[in-house]
Amino acid sequence: MIKKLIDGYCQLISYLIAAALAVMVVLVFGNVFMRYAFDSGFILSEELSRWLFVWLTFLGAIVAVRDNGHLGTDMLVGRLGPLGKKVCMGLSLVLMLFCLWLLFKGSYDQTVINWETTSAVMEVSMSWFYASGMVFSVLSAPILLGNLWRLLSGQIDDEHLLLMQESEDAPHGDAGKSH
User: Which stretches are transmembrane (predicted)?
Assistant: First the structure.
């Protein structure tokens, strides 16, 4: 049930990422065309593209957390036995949860500090910009907590004790595949 919920919100996030990327492409190339053809451009193109890029990055990182798609190295962990791998996985999950807390706290503080500050061109509260870190933290935490629960309850077999992929392990066509 929880896995279906996480898969569902990751699918929704993938659609949001695609939409943000499409809007960015239209804004940037439209602005380039307008500058060359008509010697003018979209005023908010650069700022909105920057905001979308930040949100796209954080949303994409959520999907990468779910797919264990962040690059890493297993030079040390790969040499350990099953118990050592489990300890390292548990430790890494706890450390990632701590990092999520730090990111959430920092993003929250920046959101509060910038609540009254507006962006230069769009005149939107800068808190929306900094809220991307909070959204990433809140939506990534259940994934990591689920992995930690699966580890502690013995639901992870020895083959799946590594939480990352080597760059050679993921062919380019595998990017959207769920694991």
Answer: 12-36, 48-66, 87-108, 128-149
Quote the CA–CA distance of 11 and 161 in Å, as a whole number: 25
What residues contact residue 55 under an 8 Å CB cut-off, 6+ apart? 20, 132
Residue type, 116: E
CB 126 within 8 A of CB 79: no
E-strand stretches of 97-174: none
Sorted by sequence, the CB contacts under 8 Å of residue 5 that are 6+ apart come out as: none
Q: What is the pLDDT of residue 47?
A: 94
| Cα 50 to Cα 21, 36, 60, 61, 129, distances in angstroms | 11, 21, 15, 17, 10
Separation CA 31–CA 13 (nearest Å):
26
pLDDT per position as a tens digit, 91-105: 999 999 999 999 999
